[in-house]
C-alpha cells in the first residue's frame, strides 16, 4: 500500500505539479485548496505526510499546522511548508507551529522526493528543528 501525501495549496498549478511528481514516484496524493479543506481532508482519512503552502485564503499553512498538531493522529506526522517565503521570521513561526521542514519554491522534484522519503523513513519526531531545502 502506498503512502498517502496531502498537498495543500491555493494554486491549482502547484497542486498539479506536485501531484504529478508524487504520483509518478508511487505515492497516493490527496489535494486541498486551502487550510480548511486540508484540515477536513486530514480528519476524514489518514495521511502519512503533508505539504502545505504558507499563504492561502481562509486558513494559512501555519494555522493548518497548529490545528493538525492538536490532533492525536497528526502529532508527529511530517508537515512541510512549501512556500516562496524564506525569511527567518517566517521559519521561526513555522517551527513554533510544529512544521517539520521548509521547502522554498520553486522546488526541485528530485530533492523534494528525497526529503519526503527521508521524512517517511525517519524515526525522529516531526517537531524537530525546521530544516530548509534550497531547491532553486
What does this structure look like?
The chain is α/β, with parallel strands linked by helices and 136 residues long. The protein has a single domain, classed as Rossmann fold (3-Layer(aba) Sandwich). Helix content is 40%, strand content 19%. The protein contains five helices and six strands, in the order E-H-E-H-E-H-E-H-E-H-E. Strands 2-1-3-4-5-6 form a six-stranded parallel beta sheet, with helices on both faces. Helix 2 runs parallel beside helix 3. The protein is globular. The relative contact order is 0.17. The model is unreliable at 124-136 (pLDDT under 50).
Question: What is this structure's SSE topology?
Answer:
Layout: E1 4-8, H1 12-24, E2 28-32, H2 35-44, E3 49-52, H3 61-69, E4 79-83, H4 88-97, E5 101-104, H5 109-121, E6 131-133
Parallel strand pairs: 1-2, 1-3, 3-4, 4-5, 5-6
Helix pairs in contact: 2-3
Please provide a brief summary of the model:
By secondary structure, the chain is of the alpha/beta class. 40% of the residues lie in helices and 19% in strands. It has a 6-stranded parallel β-sheet, sandwiched between helices.
Helix content: 40-55%
- What is the H/E order? EHEHEHEHEHE
Low-pLDDT sequence parts: 124-136
What overall form do the CA principal axes indicate?
globular
Structural class: alpha/beta
Largest sheet: 6 strands, parallel
Rounded mean pLDDT is 89
Task: Please provide the count of β strands.
Answer: 6
CATH homolog superfamily: Response regulator
